[in-house]
Amino acid sequence: MNVRPTLIACTLILAPQLAACAPGTANPRSASPAILALASPQQDFWQRLQSLCGRAFPGRLTESNAGDSLFARSTVVMHVRECTPGEVRVPLHVGDDRSRSWVITPVNGGLRLKHDHRHRDGAEDPITQYGGDTRGPGTGSRQEFHADSLTAALIPAARTNVWTIEILPGSVFAYGLRREGTDRRFRVEFDLTRPVAPPAPPWGSR
C-alpha cells in the first residue's frame, strides 16, 4: 500500500493547526471567531486597541458643554488595563474619581461599547452599561457606536447618542460623543506620545 499520498493529504489538513502551535507564532486565541467575523477595518481597529494594553496616557478635554466642568478642571487619565481576545476594559480616571470604565467587545459582526459605572464600594451605579454597537465597518482608526435600546430606557435623552473612538498610533486616542439633533458634544483626547504610570485600579476591581 502506498501511504505517501495519504500522508501528504493529512499534512495539508493539519498544517494550519500545526502552524498555530509552532514556536514564535501568535496565540490562536487572539483570532477568536468573534474577531474573525469583523470587517477588515474593525479587525485593524481591534489590533490597534490591543496594542495599547497595559499602558496609560494623559488626556485633555477638547470639546464640551457646561455640564462637563469636572473634566475641564481635573487630571484625566485613561488606562488600557484589561485585554482578552473578547474584551478590552479601559478605566477612565477623572481626578480622584475612578468610577468609569469603557468596555469594548466584538459582537454580532461588529463592535460594542459599554460604559461601566461603579461606586467606591464596587457596587454598580443605577446608570450603567449604557452604550451601543457599530452599524458599519468604520475604519481602522475610527469607529462609531450608536445608542442601543438599554441606553434609551436608562437615559431617554441619550437615545440618539453616537459615541466615537479614534486611535491614531503613536499620536492620539480620542473618545467623543455627539447627540444627534442637539448641540450636545463631548471629546477628550489622550496623548499616546506621553505614557504615564498606570493609576490605581478602578472602583470594583482589584
Task: Describe what this molecule looks like in 3D.
- There is one protein chain.
- With 206 residues, this protein is an alpha+beta fold.
- It has a single domain, classed as Lipocalin (Beta Barrel), CATH 2.40.128.
- The protein is 21% helix and 36% strand.
- It contains five helices and eleven strands.
- It has a ten-stranded antiparallel barrel with strand order 1-2-4-5-6-7-8-9-10-11.
- The longest helix has 18 residues, at 4-21.
Summarize the structure.
β4 (87-94) and β5 (97-107) form a beta hairpin.
CATH architecture: Beta Barrel
Helix content: 10-25%
> What is the overall silhouette?
globular
Q: Please, what is the average pLDDT?
A: 87
Q: How can the largest sheet be summarized? A: 10 strands, antiparallel, barrel
Tell me the number of structural domains.
Answer: 1
Side-by-side strand order of the widest sheet: 1-2-4-5-6-7-8-9-10-11
| Proportion of residues in extended strands | 35-45%
Rg over CA atoms:
20 Å
Q: DSSP helix count?
A: 5
The helix-and-strand class reads alpha+beta
The CATH C-level class name? Mainly Beta
Distance, first to last CA: 62 Å
What is the CATH topology classification name? Lipocalin
* Number of DSSP E strands: 11
Which residues form runs of ≥5 with pLDDT under 50? 1-29
The helix/strand series, from N terminus to C terminus, equals HHHEHEEEEEEEHEEE
Give structural attributes:
disordered N terminus, Lipocalin, 10-stranded antiparallel β-barrel, alpha+beta, single chain, 206 residues, globular
